[in-house]
Hints:
mainly alpha; Rhopdopsin 7-helix transmembrane proteins; elongated
Amino acid sequence: MMMMDFNRTVSKPLPELGLLENEPGETGRQLLGWNLAAEDLVHIPDHWLNYQEPSSLSHYYLAFMYSIFTIFALVGNGLVIWIFCVAKPLRTPSNIFVINLALCDFCMMAKAPIFIYNSIQRGYQGHLNCQIFAMAGSISGIGASATNAAIAYDRFSTIAKPFDGRMTFGKAFILIICIWTYVLPWCFLPLTEKWNRFVPEGYLTSCTFDYLSPTDETKAFVGIMFVICYVIPMSLVVYFYSQIVTHVFNHEKALREQAKKMNVESLRSNQDANAQSAEVRIAKAAITICFLFIAAWTPYAVVAMIGAFGDKSLLTPGVTMIPAIFCKTVACFDPYVYAISHPRYRLELSKRIPCLGINEKPPATVSETQSATTTA
């Protein structure tokens, strides 16, 4: 295993970290890290120490935004975890992945109070806080990407192979073990500094893995992590959902052709003429899921690759704060995409929290459907 020495000294004298050189007529401007001790500065990439610190208002805006995200994400994902665990009809093998995703998203935003506190204090608040924040972010972020791929596989198997592809509890638990076996090394390697490390970024109020140190070890870590934690999960998500859309379209086409041969309008019984066709609903759901995954993690992947292999001058503190916002946003949306669109989930939620006014009706039984057809 590669070992990296991060107990370096700061590359510029401490007095130079306080003020930018003044032009005639200008007042001094403080640089990022100007008020930190030497033992804190060794944990911060030199790249950030060249930039002017942001205004207090920028910090407070981000703290307010993260507070809103935290409330929505913790409530939404907390409800998903609670309902899916206590409601017997929802205890299915496939829903184990939905719970796992909700746990990842919950963890993603459970660490947000550290960022909010750092923002209110307007800067870096210690190495321990940074490590906790980055570790929780790595576990939840990489875990969510791998879980998205597992959900895509499960839905593909269920739709494309309805008889052979049904998920069992044993298979689901094996996949969950595989997910976390796949994820955890990329979290503990930087934490233990065996390979890479967790460092502050941007305004020094958030932390992530080091993608800025100009070393071969850093480039190797970022490149491999890009493939393992981004390219592979994203490729699986896109592949499985594209296969679902293709399968459904082909199935619907076959039904229409068979109905035409039999000189009937449709082979589906009790079809609602105003309802959207199945292929359109599946296509919209697949496109939404793929878009959320790509939109959430592509900016972060691009920033990391630029930091390791590209022009670092493009990565200003403000620019690098944007990808984190995308990641937090998807943690708020996931409960709605994966769970609130689930009729049984809405039904259980309406039973346990009637004040929400969901009013989801139980699905009609076979006898009720037959009775309604006879009456008509």
